[in-house]
Design a protein that fits this description.
The structure holds two protein chains of two kinds. Chain A contains ten helices and twelve strands. By secondary structure, chain A is an alpha/beta fold. The longest helix of chain A is centred in the middle third of the chain and has 18 residues. By secondary structure, chain B is α/β, with parallel strands linked by helices. In chain B, strand 11 and strand 12 form a beta hairpin. Classes of the chains: A alpha/beta, B alpha/beta. At the A-B interface, helix 6, helix 7 and helix 9 of A face helix 7, helix 8, helix 9, helix 10 and helix 11 of B.
Chain lengths: 317, 323
């Protein structure tokens, strides 16, 4: 498989609030996505997953590194060429309430990308909008209505219609179902699955919800404090995790089965502040198996069975 | 039913006055909770679970809210008719409450020591210095290390997980009989969620607390609650022992909810989903509110509201239940 998208050592450093230090929001991340694949990126708040996703489509400029899309480095593209490239890379945001302009009708919202890229004549655009509205499972009457008339799940469908309007190759989904109720979540996940097959899309799926990520992803990358700590095929990473952080994340999810109450691997403390990342392995202060080595040396990736884990003692917990 | 219920809610019906006229948000909600037991009240946004919890505590301003019918019997007293003065004696003393958002539930201008001591000063007439000893004890109990230093901190200096521990400390410091926890872990990261859930389980056991857990997370109910009541559009649609309801749900909504979770689905398969949307409170009409989304619906479901009646090992409000 050829890579559709490849990130090579990308980082994002922000100045800290007091202006004296740096916040390493994303630190030296490399990953690749094959055509037709779904890559899940998981991690807790502040781990850098959204910053990473925005860098992959250059909504945020990386401080370092390259982002290759079909072998072309997006980071060095001039603005106008980048704008052209955006036709191929679209995004769906988490909050269906904040990401739609309340003063635009649904037809205007979905047509906006077509207008911006000057695609088709007016009548063709209108036909395309009708088609998209049907494709995401909304009623044709939606076209002339406004966002406030829709529920969260319906708004997310509108956001998805806008994202696929330009027939992109890659869609970045940033917590697309996190704001939705369970029964609506599954409707939207099924829709995303249908669209992926029908339109031959590739997805980057960002979520803090491991069960959702496991369901949709071919590959999974787990992030902690700006770095990928484990990455590989979804079934391997989430089925047989080798990094103690991934293990703890999985263990933290309550089982939907009262006959299987389990003892959780409890991490002590909170994720540290990204302004002040611990020396050595950034996870060592919370790690149940940390040794002296972990306090001093940042672990490199250890590869095994198609997955890689950044831990001195990967798979030995 | 049992005579030993600590909390018994009977036919609780709560309405709101809105600009468009009165709207019913919960209807005929009944359940009971014995001392030291745990009940999970689950449902999706807008189902009325939080309104129920807040009505038990009488925290909803009236107007616009009203209790249209029903009783809330707590230790033999009907809270539905209690005066605000009586409620003040019960809140924070006999019943503790933990909310979803620890940041907005704490006072940002007061040190946490003062906030945790407040219930003791209010209900036990303690002086601050006396209270501090208890505060340090309770901080340790909720797993906050360095208690003496933490006392002096403000909420913004604490992480979300620590703030929620402070909320729990405030809720239990007077050793209440009942703890109402409204989405206590929803705003927290997964690893912190697991910590708070473990803490609640430990406290429940150690203090013999009865816990009413309000949540949308079925996993949390599976793990913490002996009994469950599922709410949909303002009514309880299914109730019973958690093991029974999870093993064999009788109401099609409970079934759909349990099965639409990706945690239960096979990878790559389509997720079973419930079509349609939850009707808003002003569009619930006659009959069963779930009928429009239900694949089992009969003609009768659209006109007659089903009562909550025994069904197999639990109880369901459905004219055509899953056997």
């Amino acid at each position: 498989m050829t890579a559709l998208l490849e990130a090579r050592g990308i980082s994002k450093f922000f100045p800290s609030r007091d202006g004296k230090g740096v916040v390493r929001a994303v630190n030296d991340v490399s990953l690749s996505l094959a055509t037709g694949e779904t890559l899940g990126i998981v991690g807790e708040s502040g781990c850098g997953k959204s910053t990473l996703a925005r860098m992959l489509m250059r909504l945020i400029e990386p401080s370092e590194g390259q982002v290759l899309f079909e072998d072309e480095d997006l980071v060095s593209l001039p603005k106008s060429a980048m704008r052209q490239r955006r036709r191929d890379i679209q995004i769906v945001f988490q909050d269906p309430y904040a990401s739609l302009d309340p003063r635009m009708t649904i037809a205007q919202i979905i047509a906006e990308p077509l207008d911006i890229h000057g695609i088709g004549a007016k009548a063709e655009r209108a036909a395309k909008v009708r088609e998209l509205i049907a494709l995401v499972g909304l009623d044709p009457s939606a076209a002339q209505r406004y966002p406030h008339e829709f529920s969260g799940g319906q708004r997310q469908r509108i956001g998805i219609a806008r994202a696929i309007a330009l027939e992109p190759k890659l869609v970045v989904l940033d917590e697309p179902v996190s704001a939705l109720d369970v029964s609506i979540q599954s409707q939207v996940l099924n829709l995303l699955d249908d669209l992926k097959t029908r339109l031959k899309l590739s997805y980057i799926f960002i979520s803090h919800d491991l069960s959702v990520v496991q369901h949709v992803s071919d590959r999974v990358a787990v992030m902690y404090l700006g770095r990928i700590v484990e990455e590989g095929p979804a079934d391997t990473v989430l089925g047989a995790p080798r990094h103690p952080y991934t293990q703890a994340l999985i263990s933290a999810i309550p089982e939907i089965d009262p006959t299987k109450r389990k003892a959780h691997v409890l991490l002590t403390g909170d994720p540290p502040n990204p302004e002040n990342i611990p020396q050595g392995c950034p996870f060592h202060p919370r790690c149940p198996i940390a040794q002296e080595l972990c306090r001093v040396e940042i672990p490199a990736f250890v590869t095994s069975g198609g997955s890689r884990a950044r831990c001195h003692f990967a798979g030995r917990a | 039913m049992s005579e030993h219920a600590l909390l018994r809610v009977e036919g609780l019906t709560v309405g709101f006055n809105t600009e468009q006229g009165p709207v019913r948000v919960t209807e005929d909600v009944s359940f009971e909770l014995k001392p030291g037991h745990t009940l999970g009240l689950v449902g999706e946004s807008g189902c009325g679970k939080s309104v129920t919890a807040q009505t038990i505590m009488r925290l909803l301003p009236s107007p616009p809210s009203r209790i249209d019918a029903g009783r809330i019997l707590f230790e033999g007293k009907d809270l539905a008719t209690a005066s605000q003065r009586e409620m003040q004696k019960i809140r924070g003393d006999r019943i503790g409450m933990v909310f979803q958002e620890p940041m907005t539930s704490l006072n940002p201008t007061l040190r946490i020591g003062e906030q945790i001591a407040e219930p003791l000063m209010l209900h036990r007439g303690m002086k601050r210095a006396q209270a501090d000893e208890e505060v340090i004890k309770v901080l340790k109990q909720v797993g906050i290390g360095n208690a003496e230093r933490r006392l002096l901190q403000y909420p913004h200096e604490l992480s979300g997980g620590l703030r929620q521990r402070v909320m729990i400390a405030i809720a239990i410091i007077c050793k209440p009989q009942l703890l109402i926890a409204d989405e206590p872990t929803t705003a927290l990261d997964v690893t912190i969620q697991a910590q708070i859930m473990e803490l609640l389980k430990t406290l429940q056991k150690d203090l013999g607390l009865a816990v009413l857990l309000i949540t949308h997370d079925l996993g949390m109910v599976a793990e913490m609650c002996e009994t469950i009541a599922v709410m949909y559009a303002g009514r309880i649609v299914e109730a019973g022992r958690t093991v029974n309801v999870f093993a064999k749900p009788h109401h099609p909504y409970t079934y759909g909810l349990l099965n639409s979770s990706p945690r239960r689905a096979k990878k790559g398969q389509r997720l079973p989903s419930i079509p349609g949307l939850v009707p808003p409170p002003d569009a619930r009409g006659g009959g069963c509110s779930f009928a429009a989304r239900c694949s089992n619906a009969l003609e009768r479901c659209r006109t007659e509201t089903p009562p909550l009646v025994p069904q197999g090992n639990d109880a369901a409000a459905c004219w055509n239940p899953i056997p």
